[in-house]
Amino acid sequence: MAISGRPGPKLKPSNLKYMAAAVVLCTVCYLIGASRRSGAALVTSVAVSCNVDNPSVKPKPDFESAAAIHLDFSSHHSADTEFPVANDTEARVSHFPPCDPKFSEYTPCQDTERSLKFDREMLVYRERHCPEDGELLKCRIPAPHGYTTPFRWPESRDVVWYANVPHKHLTVEKAGQNWVRFEGDRFSFPGGGTMFPHGADAYIDDIGKLINLRDGSVRTAIDTGCGVASFGAYLLSRDILPMSFAPKDTHEAQVQFALERGVPALIGIMASIRLPYPSRAFDIAHCSRCLIPWGQYDGLYLIEVDRVLRPGGYWILSGPPVNWPIHWQGWNRTREDLDEEQKGIESVAKSLCWKKLVQKNDLAVWQKATNHLHCKKNRNVFRKPLFCQGTNPDKAWDTKMEACLTPLPEVSDVKEVAGGQIAKWPARLTAIPPRIRSGSVKGVTVESFEEDTKLWKKRVEYYKSINSQLNEPGRYRNLLDMNARLGGFAAALINYPVWVMNVVPAEAETDTLGVVYERGLIGTYQNWCEAMSTYPRTYDFIHADSIFTLYKDRCKMEDIVLEMDRILRPQGTVIIRDDVDVISDVKQLLERVEWDTMMTDHEDGPHVRQKVIVASKKYWTAPAESIGTSTISDSA
């Protein structure tokens, strides 16, 4: 049976009005709630920044003005919001304790006791021999009692506080040679040396009469067996940047004196390992009675000088055996012995295709060939040394010396300079380095080099805005860049009275140290899992760009931080930039060495992953009665 349909009940108009009102009300409430949630931060921010008349609103601290007093201020944004601390227990920091005061001059890889375990042949025992993991000190190296902020450059060239380097040995041993004098509470440096009794200034003037030191063609110099580095100290006044080195030996603290004077220097020796510099790095190499056996071991050490000397560079020698007919009696050696040494050096120099330019009085100067076109032809005459085959001439970190001649880059004409002509200083700093122009540096182009130079000018300006002491002439002298890349950080500071040790880590993907030297800057290779070949309290300022990311899976971060603490002077400054995932761990380690720290954003703003830490090491020293105790007085 069919069922007929019925229409449903009809809604009254009044019900429709109620439903519509309910929908509108719900929508309005939702929109108000959403707008409050999304705009809360903005509203708060505007209220804080604009409500300048409200005394209850605290103004943002002026970081730049505070920085001139100390580096322990509030950051541009709260680190606690990015790296929250869960509770007070987690916030407690376990500080690294002070080391025993006997370690105040500890150089881990040149430790005297450890060195005695190694071969004395070729002085191998004086090379780098670093402690094993279980031997590493997990404590902070104290400054000696009475340590005083070093004199500022250029005064520091001539005077050093005795309390900072408490060693009088050289004042007695070298008393007649004007190396160093002890006067009251300080040492003075008259500028003398074994072969320049009238002073380093006059000695360099004599060299300047033999080769041109004034036209900008000579910028980088290596001083082998530098003593207290008076030669390097007086080169600086001629705009020539020296790299001085000497072993840690019986001439106690000679490199330490050099560094305290504000002269670039490293502990080093010519033994069996290559010098930690790239090929074609130095414009001149210098030896003034450096006691290196140049003619022995098939000329191995002159071969190494040849490797690091640029094409057309000069080797300068004074002291034995130069001018031996005049000095042989004073040197307590026989005529025959000195004559044999002279002939040995002359023979090796010829085999390297060096030209002896001049010998005048106590100075002899040789010049390296600008290319190897003729040198390859004369191998029929000089069968040794042979040219090296398949060896990277720039591989110098922990690499054995070889008694073979490092071949220069190929040229097509005898007048061409191998590797490319280097611009004269100061144009050299910003000119395109030949290694980049030739495309031999992986991943670096002319355009990227120019952009890098601009980038580091910008970054250094940013550093000066967050650490105003960078604007203060003389506040810093000895600077270290732990991951220098192309040397842009150092180049941006070129007008300041500072020098920068540009380190290219041995583990870096691209070796750029040759570029650093072609720019007229200096530096060294270094593995940061090991200690640096320098004394405690070497640097006033350390810059570390992405160094902790580079070594994240290679060694412990705490060991790198403790090494930074060892080589940084009391009240010295560190700027660290690294990825946000790494920087929080670094900040905690800096607190464990009791540095004052401040974290801020990247120069391009808070949305960049890389963050920046500015830190300051506190002033503290060993106590007055430090024998047999490890108690440290904190005078911060």
**Euclidean distance between termini CA atoms:** 105 Å
- How would a textbook summarize the main sheet? 7 strands, mixed
| Shape category | globular
- What fraction of residues sit in β-strands? 15-25%
Number of strands: 19
CA-based gyration radius: 31 Å
Helicity, as a percent range: 25-40%
Spatial strand sequence of the major β-sheet: 6-5-4-7-8-10-9
Low-confidence stretches: 1-12, 34-90, 627-636
Structural class: alpha/beta
Mean pLDDT: 86
H/I helix tally: 20
Q: Key features?
A:
7-stranded mixed sheet; alpha/beta; disordered N terminus; 636 residues; disordered C terminus; 19 strands; 20 helices
Tell me what you see in this structure.
- There is one protein chain.
- The strands form four sheets. The protein has a seven-stranded mixed sheet with strand order 6-5-4-7-8-10-9, sandwiched between helices. It has a seven-stranded mixed sheet with strand order 13-12-11-14-15-17-16.
- The chain has helices at 13-50, 63-67, 79-82, 88-91, 112-115, 169-173, 200-208, 230-235, 254-260, 300-308, 324-327, 335-351, 373-377, 434-437, 446-466, 488-492, 513-518, 547-550, 557-567, 580-592, and strands at 159-161, 181-183, 186-188, 220-224, 241-246, 265-267, 282-288, 309-318, 355-360, 363-367, 478-481, 499-505, 523-526, 539-545, 568-579, 596-601, 610-616, 620-621, 633-634.
- Helix content is 28%, strand content 16%.
- The chain contains 20 helices and 19 strands.
- It is α/β, with parallel strands linked by helices.
